[in-house]
Amino acid sequence: MSSYDPHEQSIPLDPPDWEEFKALGRRIVDDMADYLAGIRDRPVWQPVPPDVQARLDTALPRTGVPAQDVYEEFRTTVMPYPRGNIHPRFWGWANGSGVPVAAYADLLASVVNCTLGSGENAAMMVEHQVIAWLREAMRWPADGSGVLTSGASMGQIIALAAARQAKSGTADLRGLGAVADGRQFTVYGSTETHHSVEKAVELLGIGGHFFRRIPVDADFRIDTGALCDAIRRDRAAGLHPMCLVGNAGTVNTGAVDPLDELLALAREEDLWFHVDGAFGAFAQLLPTHRPLLAGMNEADSLVFDLHKWLYMPFDVSCVLVRRPDALENTFSSSADYISSTAQGPAAYSLAFSDRGIEQSRRFRALKVWFALKAHGIDTFAASIAGNIDQIAYLTKLADSCDRLEVVSRSDLNIVCFRYVWPDATPDDLNRVNQDVLSRLQMEGLAMPSHTVIDGRFVIRVANNNHRSVRSDFDFLVSQILTIGDGLVAASR
Ligand SMILES: *Cc1c(COP(=O)(O)O)cnc(C)c1O
After folding, report:
1. Please, which residues bridge with residue 186 across strands?
2. What pLDDT does 454 receive?
3. Distance (Å, rounded) from C-alpha 408 to C-alpha 410?
4. In what order do the strands lie in the sheet with 272-276?
5. To test ligand 1's pocket by mutation, which of 85, 199, 222, 251 has the most ligand atoms within 8 angstroms of CB?
6. 298 lines ligand 1 (CB under 6 A)
7. Whose C-alpha lies nearest to ligand 1, atom 12?
8. pLDDT of residue 7
9. Are 14 and 111 in contact (CB under 8 A)?
């Protein structure tokens, strides 16, 4: 570094030779396109070998090497060992598959390098535009407000903070778990509610104990009778019921709570109605599925992950609120260094930093703007309908096979099932299904995940994948049967 005279030249963090920079960029784009085009021929996942792990655990570099060399290292250490969710046979957890054109937008976002807290610039307007489109897609009131976040976990915190603010009665109760008169807040949701809701309740100081986990029915939907009882009991005990959380697609089984009933109950009981639609909310794009989600677009708040069932690269999620000022009431703050001016960038009235926790925010709106413009919402809707259809197909395959048992089914994109055989004990079934799943995963054949339903270890297939085709599910079933048959035969 001492060889640079700061009076004569800047430290060379910009490329000394832009032609070289372009050449590397062209090579990266070529390689990435080839990689995506050939993704089907690669294993879905493979373990990271110890020598590669060692290369990813080195000391802080003191001096640099050419960027081409770093890229080469990326190609050999990172590229071959992905999570797998861009592969056509990945159906684990709730990960999306990633629309390629959005990757260009991520590159462009890093180049223009805007932070989206406040101020007049086109990037702010892009996020504003994207939120308006998402409102329209979700059939959300036009004067509702929103903000893009990293994920639904962050969205739950923002939505529940807005709920607490709206229900506290006064404007300055941030940080408290109780209303002004000292009554403890309570929050309600089913036992199938995602753990991020409980995290949010904890973080807001309400206390995880006061998140009331209400039992579910045989279809994993909240038991509304038990819910009414719990609210009544809490009121009688002097607590202050504050918020009701409805699920539009539970993470385990894709169950949708009776949202219209929950909405009516929330109105009757003066509760904030929050809907976790992390992936399931996107079924709102399909006329066939709107009745299933009735009530969702009348909620007080809604979260949904664009990196799940809208196939955007990580991370981008959205929280919408019904009352236009609900987020600003909760999160706006003032300081001399962010006050507005009469003219110039600081005159702009919109501030996303007043709608959530973060001030420095990346330009994640651009990939959504880019992808929605490039493909149109109808294309995404068609892919979502296709995913639902594929899961219905897989469910039918499992139903018609006496060596498979469907344990949960849904109207959305998740089915849970297991390999079975006569005279198996519950322990045998759990052990063999764990082995079947790890063989699928370790050999990179397919990547479902698992869950446990009433003590039964099940293979869980959650389809947020725009690359899957029907025959991928035929392949999955045939592999499960082959592996399962082999394991049972070997144990005899
Ligand atoms: C994934 C998921 C979440 C959490 O969202 P993140 O984007 O991972 O933070 C919450 N609820 C449900 C139903 C989910 O599927």
Report:
1. 241
2. 95
3. 7
4. 145-149, 317-321, 301-305, 272-276, 240-247, 185-190, 211-214
5. 251
6. no
7. 278
8. 74
9. no
